[in-house]
């Protein structure tokens, strides 16, 4: 493992060497890094830059947003050339097909910043992307870190709004799944707004969760309001009460511990939007279920099924598919606690 980190670090230095330097007080965004790399003596990302320019304007806005927190797996020009040849397409044909281009780009972007160490820690796990219902598989094979069938060629190109890892082949997204009527209904509220609305109902369930989000690091509320897509496994008030009793804490004591509170909340959020149908399919695809990356870097939750119930670690999913503008909420009957360091 130590050898792996040395290799990744050296490759990252080579990648950074190809990018023109910025002033010390400037913090380049991912978009600025990609643009700068195309102006180097040996440009590597001219097709990626053209793709971002030809796709939905939301991609450029996201990668330019200094407050976004994303991971980009960036294919080189050589990777795009190989992919186009395999698909029998020209670059012009791909760039003209906006729908396909949007799907391909979305499949290369992960909500949340995951450095090399965090990615390596996800060995054998799935990590969600901006393409709904479509995670990537992370695996470590000897000294190689794989994203699906692609190899990470350079890691930890850091930006003000996330991190870039260079990969040696284009990630081709799976076929689109058929959308159910509930999924097709256009939500009007963000995840945060949905939780607020639930606490104002006749039978409120998430008062403690809402208080926790308000007391945690402000990035939690900002992310659940303005960014995503995310899948949130939301514990009920009863779940929080049971957890506090088991931990020997009062709600006030937990809410006062910002660091612990933020870690617990991040552990309940999965990058990517995954409906109940996808969660059940993933859980049933292997005898021991699947591990899925959370927003708490380097950690996963285990999703399993016994054929009747779906479990997130030891919590049972008791309600599903509360859709929001930036993701989906599934309700669970217990608070899941992140692993101890």
What is the element layout, followed by pairings?
Blueprint: H1 2-17, H2 30-38, H3 46-54, H4 57-64, E1 70-75, H5 77-87, H6 91-96, H7 98-106, E2 109-111, H8 116-120, E3 126-127, E4 136-141, E5 144-147, E6 150-159, E7 162-167, H9 181-184, H10 191-199, H11 207-215, H12 218-226, E8 230-235, H13 237-247, H14 251-256, H15 258-267, E9 269-271, H16 276-284, E10 290-293, E11 300-305, E12 310-312, E13 315-324, E14 327-332
Parallel strand pairs: 1-7, 8-14
Antiparallel strand pairs: 1-2, 3-4, 4-5, 5-6, 6-7, 8-9, 10-11, 11-12, 12-13, 13-14
Provide structural commentary.
It is a single chain. The protein is globular, with a radius of gyration of 20 Å. By secondary structure, it is of the alpha+beta class. The chain has helices at residues 2-17, 30-38, 46-54, 57-64, 77-87, 91-96, 98-106, 116-120, 181-184, 191-199, 207-215, 218-226, 237-247, 251-256, 258-267, 276-284; strands at residues 70-75, 109-111, 126-127, 136-141, 144-147, 150-159, 162-167, 230-235, 269-271, 290-293, 300-305, 310-312, 315-324, 327-332. The protein contains 16 helices and 14 strands. The strands form two sheets. A seven-stranded mixed β-sheet has the order 2-1-7-6-5-4-3. Strands 9-8-14-13-12-11-10 form a seven-stranded mixed β-sheet.
